[in-house]
Design a protein that fits this description.
The chain is an alpha/beta fold. It folds into two domains: 118 residues, Rossmann fold; 91 residues, Winged helix-like DNA-binding domain superfamily/Winged helix DNA-binding domain (Arc Repressor Mutant, subunit A), CATH 1.10.10. 41% of the residues lie in helices and 21% in strands.
Length: 219
């Protein structure tokens, strides 16, 4: 899941980003409205967590621009203006959800995940392949009933592949969806993570490499 956090208070922005990364999301940060528009011009995000009162370009105008451009990104407005009229206005200009600050972080995570599910194709509560079961909500993976310990990147890569059974997913797409903008596009991060995943998943193999194309769940 790729998320953009738009928040002009640097400490809060980094706290949100760190927390979302810890639950397996790839997160970029923008500190003003123009920065946000520059980000969405080059990257497609599943969810934009958008502070309403931000400098340079107001959050309302960022939201309106996303709607006008037909952006597939879902918008969660996160703002100190939490009255009913404010929520109605925010939703009226195109926000998909609205959460007043301060908020409970667990609720923020739940809302971001819910919006991401709405953006993509409808998926079942768990992703299964043979005796392998991945539960996105509870962040668990089991094989033949035995729990597997995956780090956030390994979990996210496996989730991307299981969500597209039989489809070849290019390494570049995995890098964009699982890592943030700080990732080196020429690094071996995807290959290394796939290698660790294969070792943890065991036999029979779950992930296969398609030469010069990418990776897919084995048939």
């Amino acid at each position: 899941m790729r998320v953009l956090v738009v928040e002009d208070h640097a400490k809060l922005a980094m706290t949100l980003a760190t927390g979302l990364r810890q639950v397996g999301m790839a997160v970029d940060v923008a500190f003003d409205g123009q920065d946000a528009l520059d980000h969405v011009a080059v990257t497609t995000y599943d969810v934009v967590v958008l502070d309403r009162d931000i400098p340079r370009v107001h959050g309302d105008d960022v939201c309106k621009a996303l709607v006008a451009d037909g952006s597939p990104s879902r918008v969660l407005m996160l703002t100190a203006a939490g009255g009913v009229e404010d929520r109605v206005e925010g939703l009226g200009i195109g926000a998909d959800d609205y959460l007043p600050k301060p908020c409970d972080f667990a609720e923020l995570v739940a809302r971001v995940r819910a919006l991401a599910r709405r953006r993509g194709a409808s998926l079942p509560p768990t992703l299964n392949h043979g005796d392998l079961v991945l539960d996105p909500s509870h962040r668990t993976v089991t094989r033949a009933g035995h729990p597997l310990s995956l780090n956030p990147k390994e979990f996210a890569v496996l989730e991307v592949l299981l969500a597209a059974p039989g489809v070849v997913v290019p390494a570049e797409e995995i890098l964009e969806r699982v890592w943030d903008e700080a990732a080196d596009p020429f690094s071996q991060a995807v290959r290394t993570t796939i290698s660790r995943l294969r070792a943890k998943l065991g036999d029979p193999p779950v992930i296969e490499t398609v030469a010069k194309a990418g990776y897919r769940v084995a048939g």
